[in-house]
Design brief:
The protein is an alpha+beta fold. It contains 7 helices and 14 strands.
Amino acid sequence: MTRFTIASFNVKNLIEADQEYYRFEEYTPEEYAWKRAWMADQLLTMNADIVCFQEIFSEDALRDVVIETDELGLAANEANIPDRSKGYARKAIFRKLAYEPYTEAALAFAPNLFDGEPGQRRPGVAILSRFGFKGLPEVIQELPRPLAIPFTDLDGDEGGHYRIKRLSRPVLKVRIKLGETVVTFFNCHLKSKLGELPRPEGAPFPPAADLVNYDPATRAMGSLRSGLRRMAEAWVLRNAILEELKAGNPVMVLGDFNDSEHAVSSEIITGEAPFRNYAWMRRHDAETRRDRYTDEENEIIQENIGAVRLYSAEKLFVRKSLRDMVYTSAFGGVFESIDQILMSRHFHPDFASKLGEMEYFSVFNDHLTDGSHPEAPYNKLASDHGQIMAHMLIGDPDD
């Protein structure tokens, strides 16, 4: 039996001091020291075995955070964990409180292909693993061939297509051996809801970015474009997930989806939810009103859909715990979960051939405030995302 924890952590723009990442945006040495200390404290609190990071501009800055976390963790162990001379040292609570340094952990970083000059930087993603990696990490961003999504008009006429050559941010894929099981992990950060506004050649900025001369129709079209891109990126990720599932590999997907669980982009990644019973549904090739799927065909359909579906750690936890509210984002009065941990049915408690399951789910969102409320002003140095963590078990708990 192997227990482990897996977390997703959008850090919000991690980069060293005096480095302009977006136009006119950079940290002073004091701000960078504060941000690094805040991140280290969050990592120490989570104490997760595997952490998927988003919005990493600099691998060196992330390594600095990990070093600072270890320093805090070892000091906490020294203060809180009794030595063997104490009779109560063997109590389980102290094993839970103990911090395990990341000294021997492996770190994989995927920079963004679009990363540019100061002021035009673009963030990547990273994965930190106390279990190391099996084989080399893989990065998905430059597509081997452009993805063309064809459209058909309602009257059957050809409706053009949407085409992408690269993802807006990389997807990092790693394999990690947990006990006797190798699990494939994907860390993603899908396109944000920020609109893609057209900028004429030679123009210093998109005309629709001028809020004084507000252009609602063009800005709405920009949101449509970003939504199309996010869904296209979701399909690319889904395709990579299906390759692993069809090979029989258990899968976990973490990251910033920039959409809620029930958004179309999220549902593309998880796969469709099956109906309770297809035997009452009229067949796709029906020739009469009575042509419906058989009970045997219902079993086939259920297996075909269930074998490639992913499940939300948050929703599995809510189902068993009566948890009232989980959120990882707060903006404009809307509190929602846009960071997710998904897992294949290998970890679903109802799957007869499960390899393991989730024991607990944690969310770290006390630092989140909705900047539209003057009583709780937005803190630009802390992350604007909550962190989520799943407590997992692989193998027989009686072992």
